[in-house]
Write a structure and sequence with these properties.
Elements (H helix, E strand, L loop, with lengths): L1 E5 L3 H12 L3 E5 L3 H8 L10 H10 L3 E4 L2 H4 L5 E4 L14 H13 L4 E5 L7 H15 L6 E5 L9 H6 L4 E4 L3 H10 L1 H5 L4 E4 L1 H32 L3 H9 L20 H14 L5 H13 L2 H9 L8 E5 L14 H11 L3 E5 L4 H8 L4 E2 L12 E4 L11 H7 L4 E4 L6 H6 L3 E4 L8
Parallel strand pairs: 1-2, 1-4, 2-3, 4-5, 5-6, 7-8, 9-10, 9-12, 10-11, 12-13, 13-14
Helix pairs in contact: 1-3, 5-6, 10-12, 10-13, 12-13
């Protein structure tokens, strides 16, 4: 089966590569010639564990091709996925100009029946706009060509995207015809054979499902962060509370870890877009507005704790930062809490030395030479007045605390992910500050 994927960003590249891994013939299309040429050489523009080896294997077997031409790339394809970006507009709504441009281009070059499916995260009603844009171009050509549209949103976690795609908890597909459903069943047959659930529904419901899923997860994060802040005020151990509520199967133990706020390309953008969509329909999403407000405040909480510890005097203090990406196993720094913390530190006269296993290049794009980038985690600590752990990379979980204490000017750790044992650090002579607790002083 031949398919095409338009857009080689995170979603498009992972999707195209993984479809090739299941045996489909895939052409990934992008207007960026440099990116396409690099992909042909096996050079990947994103960091995602496992992606490079799968891409190389399928490129060598010629199941995975790359092109800059929609006209050539979609020929003979049974399914064309639109996987281009939908960045937020100033008002928070999803910008659909790239999606609709692709739809128009498909309409200019479609010659036989095909199914056009959106992989991009798009607002309810987008498929109708895609269908109109394609039909408009077909009408201009004076032709009659059958086609279908569908919604097939992705549910990929950065850092675990390969596993999520090849072993999904569920596959959501919105269709409006039996032919479209049959075509998607054919494409996803390898997943059916492995008993992965596929849920067919109407297109508008599929479009909404993606937004609601991300909004619900964002809500859980903001909720536990607000609970953590209350626990701090009331002298309650939030980690015990988290374990207590997480043991309830109705709540579950995922996404209820206190931290420095959520970031990335999905949750912030999708929460904003759902709030905006509701407003466009004269409805106010009060819970989601609170989720967004809590998260924006939470990104400053580590800075606020440090500011309080040093009684408002951070001038010429050197602060070590461990972790720059918004989460482990990715180099994505979009909406990352580390950026907020660093900007506040710099604005208050502090110096920053940062280390991240993979996100330094991305950090340099955003922060330039305003901070110092350390070659390893311990180098970042030399003569620093505090260590702030922002991203819980595995290599930070069991550090050498003797070395940390020796390198720091002051044995102060602010743990933005609550991964360290407060009693252990107290015994070792550290001042320790976590999320949901006042600082513990040796």
């Amino acid at each position: 089966m031949k398919i095409s994927v338009v857009g080689t960003g995170y979603v498009g590249l992972v999707s195209g590569t993984c479809f090739a891994e299941t045996g489909a013939e895939v052409c990934c299309i992008d207007i960026d010639e440099v990116k396409v040429n690099n992909l042909k050489k096996g050079e990947i523009p994103i960091y995602e564990p496992g992606l490079e080896s799968i891409l190389t294997r399928n490129t060598e077997k010629e199941r995975l091709l790359f092109s800059t031409s929609i006209k050539d790339g979609i020929q003979d394809s049974e399914v064309v996925f639109i996987a281009v970006g939908t960045p937020p507009d100033e008002d928070g709504s999803a910008d659909l100009k790239h999606v609709l441009k692709v739809a128009s281009d498909i309409g200019k070059h479609i010659n036989d029946y095909m199914l056009i499916a959106t992989k991009s995260t798009v607002p309810v009603g987008t498929a109708e706009k895609v269908k109109s844009a394609i039909q408009e171009e077909i009408d201009k050509r004076g032709l009659e060509i059958d086609f279908d549209v569908a919604s097939n949103p992705e549910f990929l976690k950065e850092g675990d995207a390969i596993k999520d795609f090849l072993h999904p908890e569920r596959i959501i597909i919105g269709v409006e015809s039996e032919r479209a459903e049959k075509t998607m069943k054919k494409l996803y047959k390898p997943f059916l054979l492995n008993n992965h659930p596929i849920l067919f529904m109407d297109i508008r419901s599929a479009e909404m499902t993606k937004y609601v899923a991300n909004a619900m997860l964002a809500t859980k994060i903001s909720f536990i962060n607000e609970v953590a802040n209350l626990c701090e005020i009331m002298n309650v151990n939030v980690n015990m509370v988290r374990r207590g509520i997480g043991s309830d199967s109705r709540i579950g133990n995922k996404f209820i870890y206190p931290g420095a706020g959520y970031g990335g390309s999905c949750f912030p953008k999708d929460v904003k877009a759902l709030i905006k969509s509701a407003g466009d329909n004269n409805f106010s999403m009060e819970v989601l507005k609170a989720v967004e407000d809590v998260n924006n405040r939470q990104k400053s909480i580590l800075f606020d704790k440090l500011y309080k510890y040093y009684q408002g005097d951070l001038k010429d203090k050197t602060i070590a930062i461990w972790g720059l990406s918004f989460k482990p196993r990715t180099d994505d720094m979009r909406e990352a809490p580390a950026v907020v913390i660093i900007e506040k530190l710099l604005n208050h006269g502090a110096k920053v030395k940062a280390y991240d296993p993979v996100a330094v290049d991305e950090a340099k794009k955003q922060l330039g030479d305003s901070i110092e980038y350390a070659p390893d985690q311990y180098e970042a600590l030399i003569e620093a007045d505090a260590l702030i752990l922002v991203t819980e990379w595995s290599e930070f979980r069991l550090p050498n605390f003797k070395v940390i204490k020796k390198l720091l000017k002051k044995p102060l750790i602010l743990d933005g992910r609550n991964i360290y044992d407060s009693e252990e650090l107290l015994e070792k002579g550290f001042d320790y500050i976590a999320i949901g607790s006042e600082h513990i002083q040796a």
